[in-house]
TrEMBL record:
One of its GO terms (molecular function) is peptidase activity. The keyword Protease applies. It comes from Candidatus Roizmanbacteria bacterium RIFCSPHIGHO2_01_FULL_39_12b. PROSITE patterns: ARGE_DAPE_CPG2_2. InterPro entries: ArgE/DapE_CS (IPR001261), Cyt/Met_Dipeptidase (IPR051458), Peptidase_M20 (IPR002933), Peptidase_M20_dimer (IPR011650). GO terms for biological process: proteolysis. Coiled coil: none annotated. The lineage of its organism: Bacteria, Candidatus Roizmaniibacteriota. This is Peptidase M20 dimerisation domain-containing protein. Residues 211-361 form the Peptidase M20 dimerisation domain. The keyword Cell division does not apply.
Length: 458
């Protein structure tokens, strides 16, 4: 009965939460970002938390603290309120499109900022990443407080820059280590696997980069000059293609020098994970699974590096046609690195590759993100052991200890600055379509997750 009561509170909370357009990747939404943070502060304060609204580290951070008994252990629960944009910005040819046309063109069936229930799922931008998961902890803790069953002191740290790499969050933690002091950190920001509950034991690091290649100071008539002058789009495609050897191997010199080969234990662990190629195709919408030397999916994505093209722009993409050879082209790349690789060294390797492979008749500029280190996590802490038992009871399935292919920048900062154990407890469904259209959270799974959170903190 208590699960249903918390779910109703959760549903009402999430409807308000997802209505905020807290898009951190676009400065145009700065007011929405600030309003979201203030709303969260109000929710915490209304439930007895001592709160702080902290600025000066990019978007506002919200910190809440509830002390049950100073003698009890303290858990710091981290989450983020910022979200990915639900659609790309309007291009020149789309300038007259209204917002509804834009999200429909991206594939959304309903307004991404109106929480909708469909086919047993809650659908909205942020439904899983990360509003839906941090809301689950918030509403569960609020109910535990009301019933006087909270068995830990609780602190919440909820930030607004996770989707931009949390560039200044480390400085905040360094400056406010006393405010965040705790015995354990709890984070829910990911997905279960093949219906099995998951405790994450590591994350890949990440580097984002943008490349702009220029061949002239102007576009040129494709009839008068086509076939006789360099085409920026083609030259950039040729440069990017040289990054790869085959489908998955990176061709940058010395790129794999520091990559540790998967151990027999890791390969055995991943081989025990239930995996269906048909399920993978259904979840991803793809028709092919790539891997190095027939590695399994979880080893390939969790313990091997990758470089993905995440955006490409060149020439005219508006209504009709413009018959011109583009003089500039740009691409965005996402580099994922694995434990033992260093972001700074990887950046130098990437810069050298671009320099050595750019033709003499073109110029290239690089915009490089700060980068985030990869990390391994001890899954045998006291809180993690308790979580594993609860997951087994609630799901009646084996708990999978998984290396996550994604990145949560703050995990490395917590490890290096606070020096406490961390439990990475993802709650989302595998087909949630995080960062994509119709992002969703399964209702039945939410109720199981509430049961786990209740047992963990009571």
């Amino acid at each position: 009965m208590i699960i249903e009561e918390i779910y109703q509170s959760y549903l009402n909370f999430l409807k308000e939460f997802t209505a905020f357009k807290s898009i951190s990747t676009d400065p145009a939404f700065a007011t929405d970002i600030a309003n979201t943070a203030r709303w969260l502060q109000d929710q915490l304060a209304a439930n007895g938390f001592k709160t702080e609204f902290i600025t000066g580290y990019d978007n506002p951070l919200v910190v809440g603290s509830y002390i049950v008994d100073p003698k009890l252990k303290t858990i710091l629960i981290y989450g983020h309120y910022d979200v990915q944009p639900p659609y790309a910005k309007a291009s020149e040819g789309q300038a007259r499109m209204i917002e509804e046309d834009l999200w429909k063109a991206e594939g959304w069936e309903n307004d991404p900022f109106v929480l909708t229930e469909k086919n047993g799922r809650l659908v909205a931008r942020g439904a899983v990443d990360n509003k839906g998961q941090i809301a689950l902890h918030l509403t569960t803790v609020f109910e535990l407080i009301k019933q006087k069953k909270l068995n830990y002191n609780i602190k919440f740290l909820i930030e607004g820059n996770e989707e931009t790499g949390s560039p200044n969050l480390r400085h905040f933690i360094e400056d406010h280590a006393d405010l965040l002091s705790c015995d354990s950190v709890l984070i829910s920001d990911g997905e279960i696997a093949s219906g099995h509950p998951v405790i994450e034991v590591g994350f890949r690091g990440v580097i984002n980069t943008a490349i702009t290649l220029t061949t002239s100071d102007r576009d040129l008539h494709s009839g008068l000059y086509g076939g006789s002058v360099p085409n920026a789009a083609r030259e950039l495609m040729k440069l990017i293609e040289k990054l790869y050897q085959g489908t998955t191997t990176i061709a940058i010199d010395d790129f794999y020098d520091d990559v540790i080969a998967p151990t027999k234990e890791e390969l055995k662990n991943h081989a025990s994970f239930p995996f269906s190629i048909e399920h993978h195709h259904r979840v991803t919408g793809t028709k092919k699974l790539f891997s190095e030397n027939s590695l399994d999916f979880y080893t390939q994505t969790g313990l091997r590096p990758s470089i993905e093209i995440t955006g490409f722009e060149s020439g005219y993409n508006g209504v009709g046609f413009k018959n011109a050879v583009p003089h500039t082209a740009s691409a965005k790349l996402n580099i994922r690195i694995v434990p033992n690789q260093d972001p700074k060294k990887t950046v130098k390797q990437f810069e050298a590759f671009v320099k050595n492979n750019t033709p003499s008749y073109a110029t290239v500029t690089l915009q490089l993100g700060q980068g985030c280190k990869p990390i391994r996590i001890n899954p045998k802490s006291e809180l993690a052991t308790k979580a594993a038992k609860l997951l087994t009871q609630e799901f009646n399935k084996k708990v999978l200890y998984k290396y996550c292919a994604a990145t949560i920048p703050i995990v490395i900062d917590f490890k290096e600055i606070l020096g406490v154990s961390q439990v990475l407890l993802p709650f989302g469904n595998e087909d949630c379509n995080m960062h994509g259209a119709n992002e969703n959270f399964e209702i039945d799974l939410i109720k199981k997750d509430i049961g786990v959170a209740w047992g963990l903190l009571s």
